[in-house]
């Protein structure tokens, strides 16, 4: 078996090239992003080879009982619709961890695999007080912000909400209504200069500063630039909200756009209405994003849950 590397503009093109050149049986080992934004994918390719041993060489062996049975995990990843490059990366890492730790328990191996492959953030981490939310229209962004503000209030953390959406008046009214109900201060900034000044003031006054950006069509360059300007003007954790039930390949393409303007974390919404989480796993892996939290209910008070390797493994294995 030899390793072949393929470089493409994005993950969608890479997968198409792999299937065209190597077929469905190619094993994807890893993927990484190059400095110019392109994707590099490593593929294991079968190669016939004769092996010879000198008389003084010894063959080292290990017990196959030390390796967990991956068939069930592979079936679970297929059920969830995880794209091949991500599924193979998870399986390859799981095999490695299983051997290194002599661990056969599937759930334990998977938890350690997810901890190695993904980053998990604390949504109330005040070491990074500024949180900038972005997403497509209808992704649940405004509701997610209200839920974070609610969790902050329940944990006695002061917070404020800043809207930069000067396109949809309805979105501002909704957020302002949430803020009034929660007794949280609400501000509106129509330009990046106003935003910079307001954030500077709010960082000295609140534990968390939650910024809403305009919902945009990620395939319209003009709209993307509008959000990019706000993201470049202010330093803070940048969070992408996305419907967990979106088509996986389309979701990865959208994720790549937001990754290019700074998105660091993924906040899946409507997770309670989704049984297959291939989108959640694929976007985070392909777009190098960690997990911020997940929206798991329509309830504002209890609708946001922290994601970690244990809860994610539970979802993948379809455990109650």
List keywords for this structure.
320 residues; alpha/beta; Rossmann fold; 2 domains; seven-stranded parallel sheet; three-stranded antiparallel sheet; 11 helices; 42% helix
Describe the structure.
It contains eleven helices and twelve strands. With 320 residues, it is α/β, with parallel strands linked by helices. The strands form three sheets. It has a seven-stranded parallel β-sheet with strand order 6-5-7-4-8-9-10, sandwiched between helices. The longest helix is centred in the first third of the chain and has 18 residues, at 84-101. It is globular and about 80 Å long.
Question: What's the Cα radius of gyration?
Answer: 22 Å
Task: Output the number of helix runs.
Answer: 11
Strand content: 15-25%
Low-confidence stretches: none
Number of strands: 12
Mean pLDDT: 88
Shape: globular
Assign the CATH architecture of the largest domain: 3-Layer(aba) Sandwich
Instruction: Specify the CATH homologous superfamily of the largest domain.
Output: P-loop containing nucleotide triphosphate hydrolases
Strand order, biggest sheet? Answer: 6-5-7-4-8-9-10
Short description:
Helices cover 42% and strands 18% of the residues. With 320 residues, the protein is an alpha/beta fold.
What is this structure's SSE topology?
Layout: E1 2-8, H1 11-22, E2 27-33, E3 39-45, H2 71-80, H3 84-101, H4 106-117, E4 130-135, H5 141-154, E5 159-163, H6 169-182, E6 185-188, H7 192-203, E7 208-212, H8 221-233, E8 237-243, H9 248-260, E9 265-269, H10 278-286, E10 290-291, E11 294-295, E12 304-305, H11 309-316
Parallel strand pairs: 4-7, 4-8, 5-6, 5-7, 8-9, 9-10
Antiparallel strand pairs: 1-3, 2-3, 11-12
Helix pairs in contact: 3-4, 4-11, 5-6, 9-10
